[in-house]
UniProtKB/TrEMBL annotation:
<dbReference type="InterPro" id="IPR019332">
    <property type="entry name" value="OSCP1"/>
</dbReference>
<feature type="region of interest" description="Disordered">
    <location>
        <begin position="356"/>
        <end position="380"/>
    </location>
</feature>
<feature type="compositionally biased region" description="Polar residues">
    <location>
        <begin position="359"/>
        <end position="368"/>
    </location>
</feature>
<protein>
    <submittedName>
        <fullName>Protein OSCP1</fullName>
    </submittedName>
</protein>
<dbReference type="GO" id="GO:0005886">
    <property type="term" value="C:plasma membrane"/>
</dbReference>
<dbReference type="Pfam" id="PF10188">
    <property type="entry name" value="Oscp1"/>
</dbReference>
<dbReference type="GO" id="GO:0005737">
    <property type="term" value="C:cytoplasm"/>
</dbReference>
Length: 380
C-alpha cells in the first residue's frame, strides 16, 4: 500500500463531485449568483491551506466511510444542501467515475495527468476569483513536488492501492452503460484497441537475443486487438496539454445520470453485514477526520431564503424511493465531528471514542493513538 495515495484520491473525487454539482445547479436553474457562491465556497474549503498540509502528509488510505465523512462535510461547505439519498448518489457517481479513469489509464503515471485534468477544470470554475486561484496554484506545486520524481514502480503501487480501495464498488451508471464501457453487473469493459501507452510499441513482435545481446530472430504473433501507436506524452507542468481525456468533465454534454445497484453490489452489502467486525483503525480514522475536518466548516444559511436543496434525482419521489430501497450498509453512516475548543465538543468526541472501544486488552501504543484525538482537541 502506498502512503502517497490519499491526495490523488481526494483531488480526483473532489473534481468529480464539482462536475456533478455544476451540472445539477444548471439543470435545476439555480440563480447564477447562488451557483457561483456554492462552487466558490466548496473549492475554497477543498483547497484550504491547513487542510492540504494534513492531506499531503504521508499516510495510509482510510476506509470508505471515513473518506465519505470528509466529502459529506465538503459538499455542505456552502448554502447548498443534499439529503441522504442524493448524497449517496453523488458519492456513487464520484467513485465510479474515478475508478473508471484509474482502470483505463494507459500507464500508472498517467493517474497524475488525470489529476491535472481535474485541477484544470476546477481552476476554470473559479477563474474570476484570484484568492481561490492562488490556493489552487499552490496545490499544483505540491502535486508536482510530490509526484513527478516518483518511479514507474511507485506509481504502480499507487494505482494498486487505488484499485484495492475501489474493488468492491460495482454501481451501474447510466452514462457508462449507454457508452458500453460498463457491463450490466457493474464491471467496466477494458478496451483492446486504441493507442498504446507512451514509451511502448504495438504488441505483436517477439525478438530473441543471444547471450552477447545480438538479435538472432523475430517472431510475429496476432495481438487480437486493434492498437495504434502511442500518443505524445501529456504535460506534467501547471499548464499544458494533458493529451488524455480521462478526468475531463463528462457532464458537459447535458444528459441524465442514473445509478443502479447491481446484483454484485447487493451481494457485497450482504457479505459486509455478515462479516461486520470492529475496525482496528477506527480510532486512527477519528484522528484523521479531526485533523482533516478542522478546516471543513459547514456553513449554515443565514435565513430561510438563502439556502437551497439540490436533488440528484429527476423527482423528489425518485429520491425518496432510492433512500428507502438502498441497503443500509451502502448508505455510509456518517460520523459527526465538531473540531472546536468548547467542552460540549470534547464530551461528544469522548462519547464517539467510547463507541469505538474494542473488547479485550489493548497495547499502550494503540490506546495512546486513540487518545490523540482528544489531546489534540484540547490543544486547539
Amino acid at each position: 500500500m502506498s502512503s502517497k495515495t490519499l491526495p490523488l484520491l481526494f483531488i480526483n473525487l473532489g473534481g468529480e463531485m464539482l462536475y456533478i454539482l455544476d451540472q445539477r445547479l444548471r439543470a435545476q436553474n439555480i440563480p447564477p449568483v447562488k451557483s457561483e457562491k456554492v462552487m466558490n465556497d466548496i473549492i475554497t474549503t477543498m483547497f484550504n491551506k491547513k487542510f492540504l498540509e494534513e492531506l499531503f502528509k504521508l499516510q495510509e488510505l482510510y476506509s470508505k466511510k471515513a473518506l465519505r465523512t470528509v466529502f459529506d462535510r465538503l459538499a455542505h461547505a456552502s448554502i447548498m444542501r443534499l439529503n441522504q439519498a442524493s448524497m449517496d448518489k453523488l458519492y456513487d457517481l464520484m467513485t465510479m467515475a474515478f475508478k473508471y479513469q484509474v482502470l483505463l489509464c494507459p500507464r500508472p503515471k498517467d493517474i497524475l495527468l488525470v489529476s491535472f485534468n481535474h485541477m484544470d477544470a476546477i481552476k476554470d470554475f473559479v477563474k474570476n476569483s484570484p484568492g481561490i486561484l492562488s490556493q489552487i496554484d499552490d496545490t499544483y506545486r505540491k502535486l508536482i513536488e510530490m509526484y513527478t520524481p516518483l518511479s514507474s514502480g511507485e506509481f504502480q503501487l499507487i494505482r494498486q492501492t487505488l484499485l484495492i480501495f475501489f474493488q468492491d464498488m460495482h454501481i451501474r451508471v447510466s452514462i457508462f452503460l449507454k457508452d458500453k464501457v460498463q457491463n450490466s453487473n457493474g464491471r467496466f469493459v477494458l478496451p483492446t484497441s486504441g493507442p498504446v501507452p507512451h514509451g511502448t510499441k504495438i504488441p505483436g513482435l517477439i525478438r530473441m537475443f543471444s547471450c552477447t545481446g545480438e538479435e538472432i530472430s523475430r517472431l510475429q504473433f496476432n495481438n487480437a486487438g486493434n492498437y495504434t501507436g502511442a500518443l505524445r506524452e501529456g504535460s506534467f507542468e501547471s499548464f499544458g496539454d494533458r493529451v488524455t481525456k480521462l478526468g475531463t468533465n463528462m457532464y458537459s454534454v447535458s444528459r441524465p445520470v442514473e445509478t443502479h445497484m447491481s446484483g454484485t453490489s447487493k451481494n457485497s452489502a450482504q457479505h459486509t453485514k455478515v462479516n461486520a467486525a470492529p475496525n482496528p483503525l477506527a480510532k486512527e480514522e477519528l484522528n484523521l477526520l479531526a485533523r482533516l475536518m478542522g478546516g471543513l466548516e459547514v456553513q449554515k444559511p443565514g435565513n430561510a431564503d438563502s439556502g437551497f436543496r439540490i436533488n440528484l434525482f429527476a423527482t423528489d419521489e425518485e429520491e425518496e424511493e432510492a433512500l428507502i430501497s438502498r441497503p443500509d450498509e451502502l448508505s455510509y453512516g456518517v460520523i459527526k465531528i465538531q473540531a472546536t475548543k468548547d467542552q460540549q465538543a470534547n464530551a461528544e468526541l469522548a462519547k464517539i471514542m467510547g463507541e469505538f472501544t474494542e473488547s479485550g486488552d489493548q497495547s499502550p501504543s494503540a490506546s495512546s493513538k486513540g487518545d490523540d484525538l482528544l489531546a489534540m482537541m484540547d490543544g486547539l
